[in-house]
Design a protein that fits this description.
Blueprint: E1 11-16, E2 19-24, E3 30-35, E4 38-39, E5 56-58, E6 64-66, E7 69-72, E8 75-78, E9 88-90, E10 100-101, E11 108-115, E12 125-134, E13 137-146, E14 152-154, E15 157-159, E16 161-162, E17 173-175, E18 178-184, E19 190-195, E20 207-208, E21 215-221, E22 229-234, E23 240-245, E24 251-255, E25 269-274, H1 280-283, E26 287-289, E27 294-303
Antiparallel strand pairs: 1-2, 2-3, 3-4, 5-15, 6-9, 7-8, 10-11, 11-12, 12-13, 13-27, 14-26, 16-25, 17-20, 17-22, 18-19, 18-21, 21-24, 22-23, 23-27, 24-25
C-alpha cells in the first residue's frame, strides 16, 4: 500500500531540554511548539493543512492589501485577490510555497526561500528564517535580502495562535505594551488610529479578555530596557507565556478567532508580530530594501511553567 505524502512536506523536529519545535516545508511554518509535552500553540497535525494561517510566515507583506493594488517608484502593481469577498490580497506570497529545510542542529533549524519576480511583485527576495530553542524559549530569527537589481517594498509578519489553558479565551489574561490601535473598516483596512487610554481595548495592565472580540492591530509599542516589546498571556491554572519582539516590529495584530468556523472560534489567541500595518504597501509605509540590502529581525516566545 502506497502512503500518501503529507500536505506539509518534510518536517524537522528540534529539541532543547523539555522543549520541542516542529517546522515544515509548507510555508516554512512552525507547526507546533511544546514544553514538557504541552503544546503552547493551537497547532495543526503532521498530516493536516494549516488552517487560518496557523504558524505561517507572512511576507512580503502581512495582513491585508486593499484591492491588491499598490504603487512603488511610480509604477502601479496588481496582485491576485486571495480574499475575493473582501477584495484584498492577504498575508503575502510565500505561505503556501515550499521552503527549503536546511540541515537541523539539535536545537535549531532554518528554512530558506527564494521569491522570484512575478506579476504584481516583480522583485527578487531571499529569506532565511531560523527557529531555535534555548533556556530562554523559542527564538524566530529572520534574514531577508534583496538579491535583485531593483529596490523593493517589504513587510513581514508571523501568525502563531497561542493556547495557555483550556478554551475559550474569555478566561485568559492578556497584557499588551500598546498605546494605540488601528481603526479598521469592514475589510480590515486601517482608517485611522485610536488612543487606548480609557477604552475597552487597553491592555497595558493585565486583564481578562472576557467576551471582547479581537481582530485588532495595535501600535505605539512601549519597550523594555533591552529594546524588546513584550506581550503576555496567562491563565489561572498557571499556564503563561511572553511574546517578545525586537525594534523591527512596530505593530501587533491580536485575533480571537470569532469569525473562524466551529470549533476553532475563541479556542486560541493569535498574537502576530508585524513590521508594518495592514495595507502598508498601498500606503507607502512598508520598508524599502535597496539592491543588495539585507534586514534581520527577531521575535520569540518565553513559556511559563504550568503548576502541578
Amino acid at each position: 500500500m502506497t502512503s500518501r505524502p503529507s500536505p506539509n512536506g518534510a518536517e524537522r523536529r528540534v529539541s532543547f531540554g523539555d522543549q520541542e519545535a516542529f517546522v515544515v516545508e509548507a510555508g516554512g511554518a512552525l507547526r507546533d511548539y511544546r514544553v514538557g509535552g504541552r503544546s503552547y500553540l493551537d497547532h495543526f497535525g503532521p498530516d493536516e493543512m494549516s488552517s487560518a494561517a496557523r504558524g505561517h510566515i507572512l511576507m512580503p507583506w502581512p495582513n491585508r492589501l486593499r484591492e491588491g493594488v499598490y504603487s512603488f517608484r511610480g509604477e502601479e502593481h496588481q496582485l491576485p485577490l486571495s480574499e475575493p469577498d473582501k477584495r484584498t490580497a492577504l498575508h503575502g506570497l510565500v505561505r503556501w510555497d515550499t521552503w527549503q529545510l536546511l540541515d537541523a542542529e539539535p536545537a535549531s533549524v532554518s528554512v530558506r526561500h527564494q521569491l522570484l519576480p512575478r506579476d504584481g511583485y516583480p522583485f527578487s527576495l531571499a529569506t532565511t528564517v531560523t527557529y531555535s530553542l534555548s533556556t530562554k524559549g523559542l527564538t524566530v530569527a529572520s534574514d531577508v535580502l534583496n538579491n535583485g537589481s531593483a529596490a523593493l517594498p517589504f513587510g513581514a509578519g508571523f501568525h502563531p495562535y497561542f493556547r495557555v489553558a483550556t478554551p475559550p479565551v474569555d478566561g485568559w489574561t492578556l497584557q499588551l505594551p500598546a498605546e494605540r490601535r488601528l481603526q479598521l473598516d469592514g475589510r480590515g483596512i486601517p482608517t485611522g488610529t485610536e488612543e487606548l487610554a480609557g477604552s475597552g481595548f487597553d491592555f497595558r495592565r493585565p486583564r481578562l479578555i472576557g467576551a471582547l472580540k479581537l481582530d485588532t492591530a495595535f501600535t505605539g509599542l512601549s519597550r523594555d530596557q533591552d529594546g524588546l516589546a513584550r506581550a503576555r498571556l496567562s491563565a489561572s491554572d498557571g499556564g503563561q507565556l511572553t511574546v517578545w519582539m525586537d525594534a523591527a516590529f512596530d505593530h501587533i495584530m491580536v485575533f480571537s478567532g470569532d469569525v473562524l468556523p466551529h470549533p476553532e472560534q475563541r479556542r486560541s489567541l493569535a498574537i502576530e508580530p508585524m513590521t508594518c500595518a495592514p495595507n502598508a504597501l498601498q500606503e507607502g509605509t512598508a520598508r524599502t530594501l535597496q539592491p543588495g540590502e539585507s534586514w534581520d529581525f527577531r521575535w520569540g516566545v518565553e513559556p511559563g511553567r504550568v503548576s502541578s
